[in-house]
Amino acid sequence: MATPSYWDYLKLQDLLNLQGGLEDDESQLGPDELHFIVVHQAFELWFKLTLNELRLARDHLAAPHVPEQHIPHVVHHLRRANTILQLCADQFGVMETLTPQDFLAFRDKLIPSSGFQSFQMREVELLCGLADGERVDSGFGDPLAAIRRMGKGSEAGEYAIARLEAAMEEQSLRDALHAWLWRTPIQGSAPGDPGDEAAITAFVDRYLESMGQRYAAQIERLVGAGVMERAAAETKFNGMLALAGEFLRAEGAEDPVRLRRIRAAIVFIESYRELPLLAWPRLLLETVVEMESRLVLFRSRHARMVERIIGRRVGTGGSAGVDYLDNTTKYRVFKELWAVRTILLPRDAVPTLQQADAYGFVDEAGISSVRIEATT
Length: 376
Ligand code: HEM
Hints:
The protein is mainly alpha-helical and 376 residues long.
């Protein structure tokens, strides 16, 4: 093996010769085109690393049994992905130094290519768990079908198609997270334990009862302060309570028993986060929400940058441009985690914790570290 060098290890010669654009000749590029290409390539490298981190996190979570000490690894990989996504959003500031006129100088030759064809971005969506039917209409059909259609016949296009198809076969982070959440002991009861379903139902009923009491107190305050009429306040809060009930009982879902357990697990972890064995799971949920939040901000930041550079014109890929991009900011993959934020109760209103010992670290003598008193 040759003596290691920086340039060999990083394949610098190859890397720095990849900016030739459509002409495959850097000297033919317009004055701002090198900037345009390098910024896009830098994004794609960050997407590559993001995918790697998401897959590592998913692999840990997808195990049939996830030891407690593996959760920090999941958080570690997701945090790296989150830092990269934040950097990517900030990186649009570099792109934005391109003026509208300078972009117009070379924009038309790019039609119909577009960031729309970034198969790595689609892989990020697939790996998170964005379902087919959840994509917004771009005006020319499903984005994945568009990549399939346009990729046919060229080596790079076929490569994009193969990458997408492989990603579609993978287990998503959302599915792995749900499988793990489903196994969470709730009030000390685990799936398969006798009476587990009844324990979940009791927890959910008690939770909703407490929520109803708090809402009743809030109605009194609003009505008492003259902010709302009683009838209007009751309609609003009762509606919210009904929605919380539908969500927690998962009525109408394909597999209500399973989904009920998953949703109750999220509420449980968030509600008793100070328990030693729930502290890391709670942090994991927070990190997943942060990840999706950064993806949304990434999409918003891209749309604002696009609005500044090309206004409201049609994209090179043929979509409605900014309007289409703004619609994609509504995507939410981890819907359960977001929904639970609407129904969380303060610590003093959550149901009395049962079997607290199941959530403590047990020392060599078998003594649990948990000393939490029942609260209600
Ligand atoms: C001058 C700079 C840019 C402009 C004017 C622009 C414009 C657009 C437009 C209009 C679309 C919608 C599809 C279409 O009709 O083409 C789009 C999609 C997209 N762009 Fe950009 N873009 C720019 C830079 C970037 C950069 C630097 C990235 C980073 C990778 C990027 C990533 C994407 C992605 C991933 C999509 C697909 C979004 C989705 O369908 O969810 N764009 N872009």
